[in-house]
Amino acid sequence: MANVKIIDHGLDALLRQTDALAGSGVKVGIQAGTDSQDGTDMLDIAIYNEYGTRHIPPRPFMRNAAEKYREDIATVMDHLARKVEDGANAAQALETLGQWYQGRQQAHIRSGEFKPNAPATIKRKGSSVPLIDKGKLVNAVRYEVLKK
Question: Strand 25-30 to strand 141-146: parallel, antiparallel, or no bridges (unpaired)?
Fold first, then answer.
């Protein structure tokens, strides 16, 4: 009877890491119930600003950021997937992606590239920068790693 010795050179570990990416993902946005401003949940404030109301013009900060960074997102995802193929930890790669896009989303809000505040809002806030009042909306942007 012959003895067989299996040497996988780390193939099993690589397959486990790449398999961990399948069906996993990252969600970035405003989570319900994490914070409020003047008694209004930050998610509601985000929705009012994203889509507009009778008194607030739409300032689609989530959709515009996703469109603005579409190619960058694909590039970073490809880069991180390659790192996992080279042996990096899949969970850490997803964390890195979440942190990276959370920062992009927050920078997009801070950019002020939106319909300007009304004069009455500027007077009340003391600032003409839309979406930034006390900084709660921008700080409410969070990421969450979704696992299969």
Answer: antiparallel
Interval 97-138: pLDDT, tens: 999 999 999 999 998 788 888 888 888 888 888 888 778 889
Taking alpha carbons only, the member of 53, 61, 67 closest to residue 140 is 61
> Which distant-in-sequence residues (6+ apart) come within 8 Å of 69 by Cβ?
101, 104, 108
Q: Taking Cα atoms as reference points, which of 91, 101, 110 lies closest to residue 143?
A: 101
Residue in 145, 75, 61 with CA at minimum distance from that of residue 110: 61
pTM here is 0.81
pLDDT beyond 80 at 4: no
Residues 6+ positions from 105 with CB-CB distance below 8 Å: 28, 29, 61, 62, 65, 141
| 111: its two tokens | 């950019």
- Show Cβ contacts of residue 90 under 8 Å, excluding neighbours closer than 6 positions: 17, 18, 20, 21, 24, 84
